[in-house]
Amino acid sequence: MGRIRSAWEIALEKTQDIEIDEEKYRQETLLKEGMSLAGKYLNNPEMSYEQLEKDYSEGKKTGVVRTIFSNLGLPQDNSYKMRFERLCEVVNLVDVTGRAGQVMQQTGQFFEQYLQAREDFANRMQEELRMQMEQNPETVNSAQYAKLIEQNLKKMESQYSEALENSKTMLREILG
Questions:
Q1: Residue 123 contacts by C-beta under 8 Å, 6 or more apart in sequence?
Q2: pTM of the predicted model, to two decimals?
Q3: pLDDT for 43-82, tens place per residue?
């Protein structure tokens, strides 16, 4: 009768020939550290730029850049400004050319235009609905009107998202 082996012994036997790719492990660790560092800076207003610089190393750039792009989206309201300023600081940290700052400045102006366009659209729609309600309240179909507003907002957001993707493409070329 054969010896019964434990699950632990079987697992050890199966993993004994596995080699760890130390370089790949090091790269993955730096990627995670870069993402964590940038995320910590963006989410913690108490963290200073000096601390960000101190903790940054060139090896963490890929993770930091990945975090930049994951945090660069169309704003929903004016509360984005502080976070966007910090995002610009992170971009400047990894940009050795100095050109990405210009793209981020243009992106900030673009975000202002986007929010203003949304607000203008909402105001126009409210005014139009108010006028229709005053003229002939029985003919106003609020569900149909809401659907029209939603469609137009989605169209606007789609156009601005496409323009934002162009900015991201320029940033990718600069940041590498």
A1: none
A2: 0.80
A3: 999 999 999 999 999 999 999 999 999 999 999 999 999 9
Which of 149, 167, 146, 169 has the alpha carbon at shortest distance from 157?
A: 149
Judged against a pLDDT cut of 60, whether residue 2 lies above it is answered with: no
Whole-angstrom distance, CA of residue 174 vs CA of residue 72: 15
3-state helix, strand, coil in the chain (%, to 5): 80, 0, 20
Distance CA 74, CA 33 (A): 26
DSSP-derived secondary structure for 4-44: PPPHHHHHHHHHTT----HHHHHHHHHHHHHHHHHHHHHH-
Q: What residue type is assigned to position 71 of the chain?
A: N
